[in-house]
């Protein structure tokens, strides 16, 4: 357990996140006006501690694809249909102002590898951060985590847990916090697990494509992909773990001016392609990273062959999802996506001697949300 009512260190100057009432609010306003918060200015928690409006809630947060090729640490998007669930309840057996993790289950070896100590668990750290922001002193909470995402997969596993927990705590007390509050709570978790980067946790909470314009102050811009356009992600996850910290350690400490110019232009093209719904342009930019992918791909057996196989099979583009080892390709047709996935699986086995499983998923435009709740 952990005490959860210390003063928050964040000054937030964005508009409030309205109550969801079981529905996700519309974030389209943030396409043109970024969310901002200043990390250097201390702020107070809520003056009045809110009372729980639910006795229990269940929340979901989706998988995410970070970096998107040239957008290292500042671009990411949410993926529909896979993610983590958090069930949270008011628990009189837990000391007031504290949280306990009662259960962890799900895919792979999550239950064995993840700690139930909330100070060492992604969901627990984010939940504690939200409780601090809300100034919770008189209620104890019990949290159960269901992992739908494998650990070390490059699909934002830690961010999904953090996002689902942050939303659950906020909702059980009446949804008083803003989107940027929730992202900051998730960032506190991410910083202790894989580094201070929001390209997973921001899209996990907000949905869609998100650009991190700045980290201090934190500024987030949601990029609206046209609703009438079809976008499918082909996600191929090999049986190989690539811890984020290890993959970040492999990155170059210096780059050339030509590499900087190239990646900057590709990131700009990627953003333009998202806003225009230009999948061909998005695929070209996605595949064009000359800084991060070239250092990480050799650490994932068969990755270079997998990318080649995806493009030869008709994908618009292919890259490493986050830190890997999942490879992500994009297409505009679900059936074609399954064919591309099969070719990528074959390449992982042939060139990397790795078994792999494919998925074809749409863009998640909603982000973390309340699934159900029992009112008090």
TrEMBL record:
It comes from the Eukaryota. Residues 129-208 form the GHMP kinase N-terminal domain. GO terms for biological process: threonine biosynthetic process. It catalyses: L-homoserine + ATP = O-phospho-L-homoserine + ADP + H(+). Transmembrane segments: none annotated. Keywords: Amino-acid biosynthesis, ATP-binding, Kinase, Nucleotide-binding, Threonine biosynthesis, Transferase. Pathway: Amino-acid biosynthesis; L-threonine biosynthesis; L-threonine from L-aspartate: step 4/5. Its EC number is 2.7.1.39. PANTHER family: HOMOSERINE KINASE, HOMOSERINE/4-DIPHOSPHOCYTIDYL-2-C-METHYL-D-ERYTHRITOL KINASE. HAMAP family: Homoser_kinase. It comes from Actinidia rufa. Residues 272-347 form the GHMP kinase C-terminal domain. One of its GO terms (molecular function) is homoserine kinase activity. This is Homoserine kinase.
